[in-house]
Amino acid sequence: AKSAGGNRFELADPEVDARTITRHGLTTALPAALARGEFFIEYQPLVHLADGSVSGAEALVRWTHPQHGVLGPDRFIPLAEHTGLIVPLGRWVLEEAVRQAHEWQQRHADAGPLRINVNLSPVQLHHPHLVADTVEVLERVGLEPGALCLEVTESALIGADDDLLKPLRRLAEMGVDIALDDFGTGYSNLANLRRLPVSVLKLDRSFTQGMQRYPVDPVDLKIVEGVVSLAHSLDLSVTVEGVETGAQAEQLRDLGCDTAQGWYYARPGPPERLHTLAMVDATG
Ligand code: C2E
Ligand code: CA
Ligand code: CA
Ligand code: CA
Fold first, then answer.
1. Predicted local distance difference test score (pLDDT) of residue 210
2. What does the alpha-carbon distance between residue 78 and residue 57 come to, in Å, rounded to a whole number?
3. For 16-33, what is the mean pLDDT?
4. How high is the ipTM of this complex?
5. Where is the EAL domain (predicted)?
6. Ligand 1: which of 121, 182, 241 to mutate, judged by most atoms within 8 Å of the beta carbon?
7. 8-state DSSP, 67
8. What is the DSSP code (8-state) at residue 114?
9. Where are the extended beta strands (E) located within 145-228?
């Protein structure tokens, strides 16, 4: 009776318990979810700040869980990284997104080249087949490498040695763009940027958040200004994430940022929506 009571006491925190079950349940459900096609991708447009035209989109994965409904990537990507399922899942995302980009280009040559951004987990970065898999997908689908941008977080590359950078260098040499995602959160040595094979810097949302306050802290402005001028001097283009207001967009454009992404332009959505947005630009 005493041990039963003990057990019951352990289960008495329903929140902790539910969380544990869900985490474990989600982890074990991941492989079947991939096999059953429960994942889907939403696309969020990237916009040229100079004229507001769509330059491409970022692919963001979601999971339609049979019991829990649609789950965001923050709920399951860490679990998939832990079990290694991120490798086949990431390959699926890449192929799906590359196919979608190819379709946009086919149906829509007049809208200008639409580029596709795909997130790469550090686990994928360590996988020996990354370059071969990427080349294979691009060739099979028929998308030129220059239309693909792989996003790697700043924290994944901090202290990266040459072995880790080699596959990224090879992809960059082929024409694939590499973006440094969540830049500004990793405390990386700015001088270190020179040795990374990246061509795009994606300023983390924390930068743009500071610009929602009014008046904007002049120190925040100076920081963005400094990062942009450093990036440009290294021939990197600058994308800002999390742009939620027109005032932010204007300010970031004036500070010299190149492209932007955020709810002000569009939330992540189905691929057809990007089509419509790009059409609008093409027709003026
Ligand atoms: P991220 O790469 O930094 O992606 C941007 C996140 O910011 C997305 O969240 C997006 O929906 C959200 N966002 C966009 N605009 C705004 C805005 O104006 N305001 C605010 N508050 N948020 C905005 P999401 O889709 O939940 O993705 C979260 C993270 O999950 C991503 O962060 C990325 O690190 C990861 N992720 C998503 N898809 C994949 C994938 O296919 N593979 C891997 N490895 N990671 C992925
Ligand atoms: Ca990203
Ligand atoms: Ca980001
Ligand atoms: Ca982020």
1. 77
2. 23
3. 82
4. 0.97
5. 23-282
6. 241
7. T
8. P
9. 148-153, 177-183, 200-203
